Amino acid sequence: MERLLQLLKENARATSDQLAVMLNTTPEEVEKAIADYEARGVIKGYQALINWEKADENRATALIELKVSPKRDRGFDEIASRIMAFNEVESVSLMSGGFDLAVIVSGKSMQDIAMFVARRLSPLDGVLATATHFFLTRYKDGGVSFVDEETDERRDSWSD
Amino acid sequence: MIEYQKYLNQEVQQVKPSGIRRFFDIASEMDNVISLSIGEPDFSTPYHVRQEGIRTLEKGKTWYSPNRGFMELREEICSWMQRRYGVEYAPKTDVLVTVGGSEALDMCIRSLINPGDEVLIPEPSFVCYVPMTQMAKGVPVVMETKAENQFRLTAEELRSKITPKSKLLILPFPNNPTGAVMRREHLEAIAEVVKEHDLLVLSDEIYGELTYGNERHVCFSSLPGMKERTIVVNGFSKMFAMTGWRLGFAVGPKEIIAPMTKLHQYAIMSAPTTAQYAAVEALRNGDEDIEYMRSQYDMRRRLIVDGLNRLGLTCFEPEGAFYVFPSLKKSGLSSEEFCEKLLYDEHVAVVPGTAFGECGEGFARISYSYSIKHITEALRRIERFMGRL
């Protein structure tokens, strides 16, 4: 049923009937599979993919690189869970490479985010350094282009 | 004023213009048209294949290829034919790389047909076989395939059309526009008749990689005794979404490939060089791309077949290509009427079955080489349309 996950990722609003037809199964089977995915935490939720730039709302987003010192027994988990608790934080991931945690934060303005970093993140015990990168334009997100309208450039070869 | 008419070749004047055209002319004048009429993949060519084309352009590899196509590509074609269908061909003599599958069809018909020879053509089918036969001064003999046989060609129908002048059988399966597929047992029945009546076969397998369900495409030349009687035409357009690159090929007995090559050499010179380099990459590393596109088409196919059947536009389950061919019986309209009314009323463009032969009356070709979103919207409009009839 991995294809079910793929289809839901592309369109979480597809109905069980549609999904069943496409996957050559029954709506009941689809619902059962989805319930199972939800129960096992494979599916964690359903969200709309919103282009906030068009939504007429003040909103800024930043990627914050954090260098932290891991704790003896709990590694990065403890600091990560403390950061997760902030409402402003959309995602927290442990990274390979030049820094440790990638934190995506959104707020009403860049100023808000800057204050959040200065007042909430930086002072946390174990945070060694931060670097804040603001999102300027989102070209593509969630597998979908945010800049071009989907147009079909095919012209039938029988036409001029 | 010059009377051009009198200068023109008579056969060309006899050839009818394609019936697909009229609808595009109407549709192109309208706004907000949802089309399900286009006969090419909506995918772009896989990126690594495009990159290979770009790489060779950057290196300035912009010269002609050998007439038959680059040896490297012919070798890849032969090893692919072996790997996919279990048929062996010699890269040196048994392959011709052409400008799309269409050129290969034309070269083959022209190489084989003498004036008066009969060419057996199943219909509904792609529009080119009859005109090509006419241009070669052959006689097209149409065999109707029927919905009750899932639009397969039956041995009985074939037998009933054979005369002492029958020479070449065209096998366009998986079929455009019906989506029909000939399984092994159906092909075996045809092969019997072919042997019995000493026919040659031009097997147009351009949609061969796009078959759905458990049984994969069977190449006609893989049947016992058929390799020496068959020219197989295939190409990159449909399987690798490479329509615009214009690249196809024919494989078959060297005695037939040789005259085809001669014609090709004088008319075409050689197939596009950039496309050939890209095609080598596609054949070497493109299996996953085919599989991905195939699974996408398969989901869309199920969605549209289910949707149309619910509306009473019954269609048998097409097993290949990317078309469905629903019966319009419930609408009470002819093919042309249905398509025109659907276009004017709901701005949905589909192609009347009659564009693919007279026996396509009562049907329409609907392509599902479109996104699921697009197909869903088109189905919604067709539902509204059917509700008003």
Features:
heterodimer; A: 160 residues; alpha+beta; Arc Repressor Mutant, subunit A; Alpha-Beta Plaits; 4-stranded antiparallel β-sheet; two-stranded antiparallel ribbon; B: 389 residues; alpha/beta; Aspartate Aminotransferase, domain 2; 3-stranded antiparallel β-sheet; 12 strands
Compact overview of the structure:
Helices cover 31% and strands 21% of the residues of chain A.
Strand content of the residues of chain B, in percent?
5-15%
Decide which structural class fits the backbone of chain B. Answer: alpha/beta
Task: Quickly name the level 1 CATH class of the largest domain in chain A.
Answer: Alpha Beta
Mean pLDDT of chain A: 91
Gross morphology of chain B: globular
Helix fraction of chain A by DSSP (H/I, runs of at least 4): 25-40%
CATH topology of the largest domain in chain B: Aspartate Aminotransferase, domain 2
Q: Rg of chain A, please?
A: 21 Å
CATH class term of the largest domain in chain B: Alpha Beta
User: What is the string of helix and strand elements of chain A?
Assistant: HHHEHEEHEEE
- What count of domains describes the coordinates of chain B? 2
CATH-derived architecture of the largest domain in chain B: 3-Layer(aba) Sandwich
Class derived from helix and strand content of chain A: alpha+beta
What's the main sheet of chain A like?
4 strands, antiparallel
Poorly predicted runs of 5 or more residues of chain A: none
Query: Count the strands of chain B?
Result: 12
Query: Given the structure, what is the number of helices of chain A?
Result: 5
- The domain tally of chain A reads 2
State the end-to-end CA separation of chain A.
44 Å
Order of helices and strands of chain B: HHEHHEHEHEHEHEEEHHHEHEEEH
CATH architecture assignment of the largest domain in chain A: 2-Layer Sandwich
